[in-house]
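Known limitations

Structure tokens in this collection are predictions and should be treated as such. Users comparing against experimental data should check residue numbering before alignment. To illustrate the layout, the record for N-acetylneuraminate lyase is reproduced below. The input appears on top and the generated tokens appear beneath it.
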Amino acid sequence: VICQYVDYLVSKQNVKNVFVNGTTGEGLSLNVQERKQLAEEWLCQGKDKLDHVIIHVGALSLAESQELARHAAAVGATGIAVLAPFFFKPTNKDELIAFLQKVASEAPAVPFYYYHIPPLTAVKIRVEELLDGITEQIPTFRGVKFSDTDLLDLAQCINKNEREQFTFLYGVDE
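Generated tokens:
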């Protein structure tokens, strides 16, 4: 049905960019092979129809996130995103960036996005703080999928964006 869904999104909803294997699509409920298959199908069906297909590669296991990042790069994703680890949580910015860097480095030519969703991860490191110097450690860093209700943090991120060229994808289901 992905072919039909892509056609519907493009022709009826004027959607040109998708975020695959995220939380609304229950990507974390799928096994690694299912996530790979879904990413491949979106990329195949979206070819020449969608501008960007960002693949969420976050997983409970760092090794699985790295595997998914390598796969996304190999099959032509236009971006990858990862959420913070939510079992053994990072307690500060440096720990979070170190984790993100380990995933981003597996797809060194693919734009990288941090998926900030504290209601799911319980990692409450402010994104505005995270952005300071992040491109020195993650050269492919392009922005944030910001799924939190802390609009002050989002506004400070956007203000910081006047100096950087980051993209902020905002979405809170409520």
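For this record: The beta strands are 17-20, 52-56, 79-83, 112-116, 141-146, 167-170. The mean pLDDT is 93. Please report discrepancies through the issue tracker.
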